[in-house]
Design goal:
about 170 residues; five-stranded mixed beta sheet; globular
Length: about 170
């Protein structure tokens, strides 16, 4: 696995200024950044085919069943995740902004807001990234440092395991 941040092993995430500052100064609680996995963000976090069908996590699913992104599934997320090595954080959406690149030490999943709906256990799934110290940092207005532009690189986030099975319907 590459130890250099590239477009092929990273994801760009926007963040608020306070969250950014806590990452940079090392005061972020547990060094964990959480994001919800929802229909609109599914393609950012879940391994999918070119047709958009998700790969099942065979350790915790039955390949003959169909799963949705809000299935509790006995506390196990039913799909395989994209494996990011780095997060590229940027404050807000303007072109001139604070930004940094951080190594991802681990990726975890957390079910939140558990409910029972029509006899099925449902929840909101959140992906958590355990972060190390920033590798690259650029503050807004710092003319001595160029904006962070990651080079092209081998795509390591979409490595499909040999025995992976595609779910035959959408996960949404």
């Amino acid at each position: 696995m590459s130890l250099t941040p590239t477009k092929g092993n990273s994801i760009l995430l926007t963040i608020c200024q306070n969250g950014f500052n806590s990452i940079v100064d090392g005061t972020m609680p547990n060094k964990l950044e959480f994001r919800p996995i929802k229909a609109s963000t599914l393609s950012r976090y879940v391994l999918r085919t070119k047709k958009g069908l998700p790969y099942l996590n065979l350790a915790h699913t039955n390949p003959t069943e169909s799963y949705k992104i809000d299935d509790y599934n006995d506390g196990h997320f039913p799909f395989l995740l994209r494996q990011y090595s780095f997060l590229h954080f940027a404050v807000g959406y303007t072109t001139e902004r604070d930004e940094c690149v951080v190594h991802v030490e681990d990726i975890l999943l957390e079910p939140r807001n558990y409910t029972l709906c029509d006899g099925r256990e449902k929840c909101e799934w959140w992906i958590g990234f355990k972060l190390s110290q920033p590798l690259l940092l650029r503050r807004k207005g710092d003319v001595s440092h160029p904006k962070i532009v990651l080079p092209e690189g081998e795509n390591t986030i979409d490595i499909i395991p040999e025995n992976a099975i595609v779910q035959n319907s959408s996960a949404k």
